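User: Um, any thoughts?
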Amino acid sequence: MKPLFAILRLLAGAAIITAVVGQFAKSWSLVPDRAFFFVNFFSYFTILSNALSAIVLLVGAVILFRGRGEPVWFSVAHGSVTTYMATTFVVYNLLLRNISLDQATTVPWSNEILHVWAPLYVVLDWVFAPGRRRITWRQFWVIPAVPLVWAVYTLIRGPIAGWYPYPFLNPANGGYGAVTVYVLAIAAFIGGMGVAVRALSTTRWPYRSDDANQEPVAARSSAS
């Protein structure tokens, strides 16, 4: 089972990298201000979450090939990117799919991989791949940390650069009240999804192949 999921992680990681590079190369060849574009490109939460997911998947493949249980830090990182990718999937399909995009710069197949297929795979990997370790409440704070830093960065940089990665973050579209509502709603979703990801890590369904490496039940209870 581990070699199968290791191969799937390698393929998924390669697909994500190909999609990111494909979109970057297409846009890079068309934009006039490349320095401005470079910063903007990596300011999208979609690109950030996919890039982190590719790294986690590739590292996770190596861990599975070695046949060892996941280190705690990796399971926390794995759970974090699962939360981010689930958020990317939901936000895109609810808020952004029907927004007209510049088809001259958008690569359709890359767009679908980054917003649909990669998020779905990362979630399924968290559910079914062997080796998942328990995330305690003390470790949970790591999950919302990255989105929080990204949101603060985006709202500070937006007025300075005159550019926002998503229209619902731009105060010009409804004012700061509307932006606050969207940010709070997405924050609540990320928090809820993080709780679900953490809860799944505590169960034995479908299995946890590293149970022999887990700390005793009493120690786990005190840590959480």
In short: The chain has one domain: 2-223. Residues 2-28 form the longest helix (27 residues). Confidence is low (pLDDT under 50) at residues 209-224. The chain has nine helices and no strands.
